[in-house]
Amino acid sequence: MSAILWELLRVSERAANIAWVCRQQEALFHLLIEEKKEIIMRLYPTEEEPADLLSKVLNGDNLRLCTRTFVFSDPALDSVEIKILQDILGIWVDPIDSAFQYIKCSAGIKPNQGISPGGLQCVTILIGVHDIQTGVPLMGVINQPFVSQDLNTLRWKGQCYWGLLYMGTKIPSLCFPSLQAAAVKGRANSECSLLFSALISTTLSRVCGKCIFWAAGAGYKNLCVFLSLVDMYIFAEDTMSRWYSHAAHAIFGGGGMVDLKECLERSTDMRLDLPQLVYHAGNEDAAGVDQWASKEGLITYRSKQPLETFLNLLLQHLAPMDTHT
């Protein structure tokens, strides 16, 4: 298991390196950007073959994009000895989430209580692994290439987060704060009893009051939950694809991602299991990429108690209930 996770980390770091270099070189940046439509991913048995293809695209320039070796050190991952059969694993990959921010925006957007509303800091690389029989997330990697920039060299420093969730074993990367830290981190406004990010409706505004934050990129917003900057991320529309949520769902064992409509329709009985998202089966009434959208909205949460409190408050303000308002 650790060998697979190490490879996912290396892949994410290689992708982050490509993102860094492309932003630093204007000609290369425009060369590699094209309209995002349907992308086909092809796997090769060796590193040399994709390196040769990229070298042709770059006209032989910047081969360091293909040949750089990445070394990680994480004692938590070194200790993982769980065995999972490789033939039951499915993988969702988003090679560059928040592409608009990557292409159009800069680093000069000021954060709000540690949360960047836009800019390169919202760009992430997402890799999620699930059990193809149950759809339950098993492993995840979120790589944030643009965390901070050296104003003298203009070089970027990134951060990579990972997590393992299997058969009761929950192992997050060491860079995640503890649940105890969640009670105090990011709460500069003492009036906030609950913090939420990217809430867009008037109904949600009535529930959350002043505790609403805005940010770009689904991967980044989920990361804000896991870093204790907010308690939850609520997405009440029907356009969230599974590859946006998969990696984050796997890296955070203490919380989860649940279907918003199902949460509101179920009994408020705390003993009932929450309707966690799964990743192996598409929507039966849709085709193409639409079959992998979370049609009923979703909530990312760090701990169950604030989630239950929020749902109870939301139900009080919905008359009649409408999760898409």
From TrEMBL:
Molecular function terms from GO: inositol-1,4-bisphosphate 1-phosphatase activity; metal ion binding
Cofactor(s) essential for the protein: Mg(2+)
Chain residues that bind Mg(2+): 94, 96-97
Coiled coil: none
Family: Belongs to the inositol monophosphatase superfamily.
UniProt KW Metal-binding keyword: yes
SUPFAM superfamilies reported for this sequence: Carbohydrate phosphatase
Gene3D superfamilies: 3.40.190.80, Fructose-1,6-Bisphosphatase, subunit A, domain 1
Protein name in UniProt: Inositol polyphosphate 1-phosphatase
Keywords: Magnesium, Metal-binding
